[in-house]
Request: fold
Amino acid sequence: MSPDDSCVRTLACPACGGTIAMRAAGYTVTLACEYCGTLIDATNPDARIITRYHELQAFLAIPLGMRGTLRGVEWEVVGWMQRADGWATWEEYLLFNPYAGYRWLIAQNGHWSFGTMLTAAPRLDGADAIVAGRRFTVFYGGNSARVLRVAGEFYWRVKIGETVRATDYVRPGAMLSLEQNDRERSWTLNEWLSGKEIRAAFDVPPPPAWLPGMTPLAHQPSPFARRIKGWWPIGAVAFVALLLMLSLFGATMQPQRFSLSVTPDGPSVSQTFGPIVLPLARQAMTVEAHTPGVEQGWVDVDVSFVNRKTQDRYDAYALNEHYSGQDSDGYWSEGDRSQTLKVASLPAGTYDLVVDAQAHHWGSSGSFAYDPSSGTYKSDGLPPVEVVLTVARGARFLSNFWLATLMILAPPLLMLLFHILFENARLAQKDGAPADADDWWQGMQSP
Amino acid sequence: MQSVACPNCGAEVSFRSPALPVRVCDHCRTLVVRYSQSAQAMGEAAVLPFDVSPIQIGTQGQCFDQGFTVIGRVRWAWDDGAWNEWLMLLDDGSHAWMGEAMGQFMALREVELDTAPLIWGLLNGGEAVPGQSGSIAGHAYEVADVRTVRCIGCEGELPFTAPAGWEALSVDFRNADGRSASFQKDRHGPSLYVGHYVTLASLTPRNLRSLPGWSLHPHVA
Reply:
């Protein structure tokens, strides 16, 4: 290619003869033949061999020369190196743009990070390092990172087996790496890339989803923290909607009031009230059965909504009772003179309310007389008990409300559990000081 | 702007900066040195090897709180690499250098030689080692690199003749705030430069070199 239409210079590898490209002429110091791995001195016009290798071509997830746009800048992959410390092996792709300089793309366990070399050293605060107001906690210290294999071009004299001491500082979503040897100290800020970002840029598979039992990367952000946070607005809207529904549809409308009297220990009284017109296809009904006069006794109230047309019945039952007295502790009372009955889902139609009520008395007050017709003693002279029924459309089913609230809360609680499992696995890798509250707090603040 | 005829090929050689004595002829690469109204050839500058630097002679922008125009370049090499130093003519008529290495830029201005121990030691034939710390112009620095460098080419206007193969001792300093400094000692004597790292975008550059196959970075277009 002529110098006019491309910035790429090609040369033949002096070891294997393969055609290799030089994409960052002027910056590149070392070229590693991508076919045989031989290291070539790019500062020498004759492309002198530095170290001859006979390696098989490495399989690169992103081929040399591929371009991709990351964070608004187009980058070309110019170099690749595989490095390892005692615990892990990872790959680093060197990215180049003549107007923006160099960046790194670091691949480990299927996850990708975007590395920028810092020109100013971070501020150190105890065991933490601070860059642009972001606090990083020391995670791994004193590891030796060694170069295993290289391909492509580099702006320094790369050597196989070359070792640097590495210290990594972490916050969820980013890692700050200090690499030093006897000559140099350099700081690199590595930002974790989402599957979407790396896929859009270089068409590589997105990182594997985390499952309990897997070890996340030290700076991998918890996928659950974001989801929990994303859930709050949804949960809040759902809760407000629930309250709204409760107040709209739970409100009772068009109350109708009926009453009847029953004599305690007297015969059962049956009475029909109506009409009750239900206009909606389906509606819940509330019947409030109130017996203000019941004392030392109980009232059974059976109510039935009977459809005039179909004679379908919808039944409900209330037992109102009230007892009271004096004992050594003073006055006592128990029972409830009021019951609220709910009938769910009545179809539209005209209904009658059929009420059967019977009152009973218990205790010594009142007088009894023998009734020859029934052959029993019955109380006499007790005042009749009034049964007041208030029938209204609509009903509030509180059990449904609690169920719905639980359903709104269940997903974030489940995600919180997963988040804790994830962070536990992530922070377990931390060297030195154990994970503290700050680490957990940072874990919630994913980027 | 002053123009003279190249003593070697006769092409017009123009000087944009009144203060600079040296200019590389764009046609025949002769080093032209001017003395008041006359010009003299001082040998030939080596052809610069192809590189993909985004800077070129004529690039303009903002640096040191004023406008600048790039008017010259010296390319230096050492055993393990090479870099560019671009000469900037600032709006106030003074000069500054833009060092370009490893895709990073630093803007540097010459200052008076410091009498602090670090520089004093270098001036008196002492040695510096990477990691050594000391103070320059009131700021703390660390020695980043010590190396013997040689000029491998130049172009445009220059404050000195820079023949190929010219050797110098170069000591680079860095500090935690992104400041940088450079001490250079060659046959002309010692000189000291201080400045800081800059990004290309922060220079709001115009007239960058267009590189085939690359679109201008959106932040520097």
Q: What stands out?
A: Helices of chain B lie at 117-123. The longest strand of chain B covers residues 139-158. The interface with chain A takes residues 49-54, 77, 80-82, 84, 102-104, 130-131, 144-145, 175-178, 197, 200, 208, 211-220 of chain B (CB under 8 Å).
